[in-house]
Amino acid sequence: MKPQFGTRFLTDPREVFQHNAWDNVEWTDEQEAAAKKKVLENSQPLPPEKQEEYDSRANEYWNDFYTIHENRFFKDRHWLFTEFPELAPQCGLHQEPSADASATELLQEDSADQKQCTQLASLSLSDGEFPGSSATYRILEVGCGVGNTVFPILKTNNDPGLFVYCCDFSSTAVELVKTNPEYDPGRCFAFVHDLSDVEADYPVPDGTLDVVVLIFVLSALHPDKMQASISRLARLLKPGGVMLLRDYGRYDMAQLRFKKGRCLSENFYVRGDGTRVYFFTQDELHELFAGAGLEKVQSLVDRRLQVNRGKQLTMYRVWIQCKYRKAPCLPPDT
């Protein structure tokens, strides 16, 4: 059984090259000061006209990315089910207590309420059917790429009532999902969608999703568009439904590697291929989710030291993992 992250600790610095990665690595004050200095050195933003170009051509850059890499760039995320047991709740894969021990308990307490909410949600749907309208457990992944989250969910979660929706900004990525031999239209619906376009319709009514998943996708949005996008997604959740996020944290190695001329605004950068990325703090993410009316179940910083033993290199990674929940519906007064 694969444990949750945070179980291999570096207690003796001389042993740093004994493993490929170490968990929960605390930074020294000197390291943090050096990271802040490095970010400040490369924080001069590009001219507004250049920024506008990256914004207006974002779709083109992501299509080019997936045309070049197709399905070779990403590995299936099998860690998903230890970190986010909500993706396959009937499988009993989650045995270890999480760093926020109350998270699973909070979700379990609401199971009875959620069943009642499911019934209420079904009553509020319009007469017209939609993909997965007969499902009893619905998951949406936003920013699905080539399906490295979706296909492990479909393979692992054998709940006959499961239906998975997945969308991406890139039509190239969605086409790669649909042409994958594992794509099953009876259990999955892939579609092109711009998360930042809050006026664009989703293929499901509001209040019908159990889980929304955002894996390294919110960071690709312009910071000014993040709040409206999260608020729109929150409307899709059933009462008691959860939003799951894993994304880049402040001072991650990828942020420190950006050279001058790549900064768009504070902690927001453009890569060499034209795609963009933001580096979050926990407080910033909490503000976004709370602003959408969701309550915190879990918020963790995963500070990991990755090691290239062949080249004797050390790389500090910082990721943030969150779970936020829509308040369960109250039982009717008796």
UniProtKB/TrEMBL annotation:
It catalyses: cytidine(32) in tRNA(Thr) + S-adenosyl-L-methionine = N(3)-methylcytidine(32) in tRNA(Thr) + S-adenosyl-L-homocysteine + H(+); cytidine(32) in tRNA(Arg)(CCU) + S-adenosyl-L-methionine = N(3)-methylcytidine(32) in tRNA(Arg)(CCU) + S-adenosyl-L-homocysteine + H(+). One of its GO terms (molecular function) is tRNA (cytidine-3-)-methyltransferase activity. It comes from the Eukaryota. Its EC number is 2.1.1.-. GO terms for biological process: methylation; tRNA processing. Signal peptide: none annotated. InterPro entries: Methyltransf_12, METTL2/6/8-like, SAM-dependent_MTases_sf. Coiled coil: none annotated. GO terms for cellular component: cytoplasm. It is found in: Cytoplasm. Residues 140-242 form the Methyltransferase type domain. SUPFAM superfamilies: S-adenosyl-L-methionine-dependent methyltransferases. Keywords: Cytoplasm, Methyltransferase, S-adenosyl-L-methionine, Transferase, tRNA processing. PANTHER family: METHYLTRANSFERASE-RELATED (PTHR22809), TRNA N(3)-METHYLCYTIDINE METHYLTRANSFERASE METTL2A-RELATED (PTHR22809:SF4). S-adenosyl-L-methionine-dependent methyltransferase. Belongs to the methyltransferase superfamily. METL family. This is tRNA N(3)-cytidine methyltransferase.
